[in-house]
Design brief:
Helix content is 22%, strand content 19%. α2 packs parallel to α4 and α14 (570-577) crosses α15 (586-596). The chain is globular and about 85 Å long. It is an alpha/beta fold. The two termini are 50 Å apart. The strands form 6 sheets. Strands 5-25-24-15-16-17-18 form a 7-stranded mixed β-sheet. Strands 6-22-23-21-20-19-9 form a 7-stranded mixed β-sheet, with helices on one face. A 5-stranded mixed β-barrel has the order 10-11-12-14-13. A hairpin with a 2-residue loop joins β19 (554-558) and β20 (561-565). Bound molecules: 2'-deoxyadenosine-5'-monophosphate, fe (iii) ion and zinc ion. 2'-deoxyadenosine-5'-monophosphate binds next to loops. The site of 2'-deoxyadenosine-5'-monophosphate (D5M) has 13 residues, from loops.
Length: 692
């Protein structure tokens, strides 16, 4: 048997270039067991040319990579570098010192932190992602930072204000990670289906593999058969080359008083995809074609979208009666009527804009003249969204519109009854544990802060009243999510990534309820909606004491306020389709989605959508707050009483993001006042984030 077959039999893969490098030495200079042992030590089950080259040089055979290979295997950041970089990060002797700096939020006499409404600096700050200008250099500070948000209409709870400088005295020692040069791992329970066996190491691995006795390593495949994880057999006593944060143990500061402990829990997940009972279309008989079922499924999906959107649009009193496209031929040509439909396509013409819409009863072309102000809405209408038009039917299969209605949200929101006490929620997203760009020090510092290591009274008040923590997806970095990701992983194993996340999150004080939803980097269905995490991989999440897994999207009701939580991939399509939108202004893109009342309207573009019989991505009821992540930039906005916030990330800029010019704003913690569902403060930990 040749090298390729042998490797495949043992669930290892080899790239063609690696094969050519290795093959001539196989059986003469090394055996299969040695190669597998080497690959395992690098945490990979794919032997590429970099691994092959490193392996040969470990045997004293120095073979140069062929030139054309270098672009493929990114030799500059050798495969083994990722874990190394991460562990050296853990070992760096950075003693974070908290020093006084100025901030840009003001604290009012009554103690509430207000947000400046005039701060063009912040706007440009958000869009460029530049770090704050601090006096000194590597020293750092925790700020209570209000940032400018662009408030479009709505209440003016925002006033201009000067900023208070929080008293940030004293050194803060990051308990773990700072100087721990040899993190000791807790022994890890074997992952399901894989036992440790008796094999210790790979000295006899060739035989072991050949005979197939004992337990074989296993490759776990994700959607579409893409390998996403490798479950090696555990070798007792074998140390991992990376940390899974089992040494991070942070306890609430002695004597710290948590007001939130005495406030009654009041939360309810009012919408979760897992609770939706889907009626899956079935083939009429066993001979039914698969393709037919898929078409049927999508037709059901879009019918559901139309039905839900119609209900939403009807709620707008300005719209009036809507008639079916099929009935247009019965109306007078001078009669004003309203039609509605899914936008199949749209285009600019010489005199205006043309749409083709479909409502389940028929298809119609709709024209609007460019001299009409309403026609500007053309740009906000994404393909496959549902909108209404008022105008007249020409009688010749074309409808002349003079008004366009986006589904939108009502201008005013009824005020909710006040709460007896202030209670806060922290909203996070895109933690990306496992990435070597994960800001682990900053996250640990944040956890200490939550445990009462605060710098002043204002922060004490904030921490003391935090009762909820919401995490909107991309909680780990995953495996194989983008090309070359392997080189940027500190934890190259999806199971260990969740293990590491849980080791961090177990330090969240018990009285805080945590909600965790999936994103596109998680071990979850790739297509939207994402009902949750795949149990097999995310098992450690179950160990968290006071945590609930939510779907993407989900609606959580906190003390009567509805928080719509989504990872936010739909933002990518907005940036693609709507002019003047950018990854760096996500709140604006979120507003576009809110106005279309859909989290990912466009089908068949960047965001995969599952053909569920019901469209659960419709924003059916108007939330008090809409949170998304995904684009790694924090920004917020107010619109008609809805607070929109993108919660940024805990990952510094990756090589991939550098290439596509995405500048993240990591390690910022927005604290939401549940009563108003608005921002109370932003506390920044980015000074602890390397590479920012
Ligand atoms: O997404 C992090 C950021 O990277 C977000 O702004 C989207 C962007 N991104 C992710 N994948 C792509 C591709 N394939 N092309 C362009 N931009 C992309 P995250 O989900 O954390 O990777
Ligand atoms: Fe992300
Ligand atoms: Zn994402």
């Amino acid at each position: 048997m040749g090298l390729i077959e042998e490797l495949m039999k043992n669930n290892y893969l080899i790239t063609p270039s690696a094969f050519y490098l290795l093959n001539e030495y196989y059986d003469g200079n090394f055996n299969l067991g040695q190669l597998i042992k080497f690959a395992k030590s690098k945490g990979t089950f794919i032997i590429d040319s970099q691994i092959a080259e490193d392996f040969l040089s470990s045997l004293g055979l120095h073979v140069k990579l062929p030139l054309e290979d270098s672009s493929v295997s990114a030799p500059e950041t050798g495969v083994e570098k990722a874990p190394e970089m991460a562990s050296s990060e853990v070992q760096t002797d950075i003693e974070p010192k908290i020093e006084e700096t100025t901030t840009d939020a003001r604290v009012l006499a009554d103690g509430s932190v207000e947000i400046t409404s005039d701060s063009s600096d912040v706007e440009s700050y958000v869009s460029t992602g530049e770090p704050p200008i601090t006096e000194g250099n590597e020293t750092s500070s925790t700020e209570i930072g209000g940032e400018k948000s662009e408030f479009v209409g709505g209440e003016s709870f925002v006033s201009t204000g000067e900023l208070e400088t929080p008293d940030l005295g004293g050194d803060v020692e990051v308990e773990s990670g700072g100087d721990d040069s040899s993190p000791v791992e807790e022994p890890r329970a074997p992952v399901s289906g894989v036992s440790n066996g008796d094999s210790n190491g790979y000295a006899d691995s060739e035989e072991y593999y050949e005979n197939g006795n004992g337990v074989k390593p296993k490759i776990v495949y994700g959607d579409y058969g893409v390998p996403i994880a490798y479950v090696g057999d555990e070798v007792p006593g074998e140390e991992k080359s990376y940390s899974v944060y089992s040494d991070v143990v942070i306890r609430p500061k002695e004597g710290f008083k948590y007001r939130a402990r005495e406030i009654k829990d009041d939360w309810n997940v009012v919408f979760d995809v897992k609770n939706v009972k889907f009626e899956v279309p079935k083939a009429k008989n066993a001979a039914g074609k698969e393709g037919e079922i898929i078409v049927k499924a999508y037709s059901k999906y879009f019918k559901s979208r139309l039905k839900k959107m119609k209900r939403i649009i009807r709620e707008n009193p300005e719209v009036g009666g809507i008639i079916d496209i099929a009935k247009l031929s019965y109306v007078q040509t001078d009669e004003d009527v309203t039609i509605l439909g899914l936008v199949n396509n749209k285009r600019e013409t010489r005199k205006g804009y043309m749409f083709e819409i479909e409502d389940g009863t028929g298809i119609m072309k709709v024209f609007i003249n460019r001299n009409n102000e309403e026609s500007k809405k053309f740009f906000q209408i994404m393909p496959d969204s549902v909108v209404a038009f008022r105008g007249r039917y020409s009688g010749r299969n074309i409808f002349f519109a003079d008004k366009i209605f986006l589904p939108d949200v009502p201008k005013f929101r009824r005020e909710k009854p006040p709460l007896e006490e202030k209670v806060y929620a922290i909203l996070l997203s895109d933690i990306h544990v496992g990435s070597n760009k994960f800001c682990e020090k900053a996250f640990e510092r944040f956890l200490e802060w939550l445990n009462g290591e605060v710098n002043n009274k204002k922060e004490e008040e904030l921490v003391s009243r935090v009762k909820y923590l919401i995490i909107a997806g991309d909680v780990v970095d995953g495996i194989g999510i983008y090309p070359g990701q392997y080189n940027e992983l500190a934890i190259p194993d999806i199971f260990d990534q969740y293990e590491a996340l849980v080791n961090l999150l177990r330090n969240v004080p018990d009285h805080i309820t945590t909600f965790i939803g999936p994103g596109n980097h998680d071990a979850a269905r790739t297509a939207l909606p994402q009902p949750g995490f795949y149990d097999e991989y995310a098992k450690p999440l179950k160990r968290l004491k006071n945590a609930a897994i939510i779907s993407n999207p989900a609606v959580i009701r906190l003390h009567g306020r509805d928080f719509l939580i989504a990872h936010g991939r739909g933002i990518e399509d907005v940036v693609n389709f709507i002019p003047n939108r950018s990854h760096h202004r996500p709140a604006e893109a979120m507003l576009d989605l809110l106005k279309l009342r859909h989290l990912a309207p466009t089908f068949g573009e960047k965001v995969p959508i599952a053909p569920d019989p019901e469209d659960t991505l419709v924003i059916e009821s108007v939330p008090d707050l809409f949170q998304a992540g995904h684009v790694h930039v924090m920004e917020y906005k107010m619109y008609n009483g809805v607070f929109l916030i993108n919660t940024g990330t805990w990952q510094a800029q990756t090589e991939f993001q550098k290439m596509v010019n995405i500048v993240p704003t990591p390690a910022r913690v927005p604290i939401i006042d549940v009563e108003t569902a608005r921002l109370r403060a932003v506390v920044r930990f980015d000074q602890f984030c390397e590479g920012v």
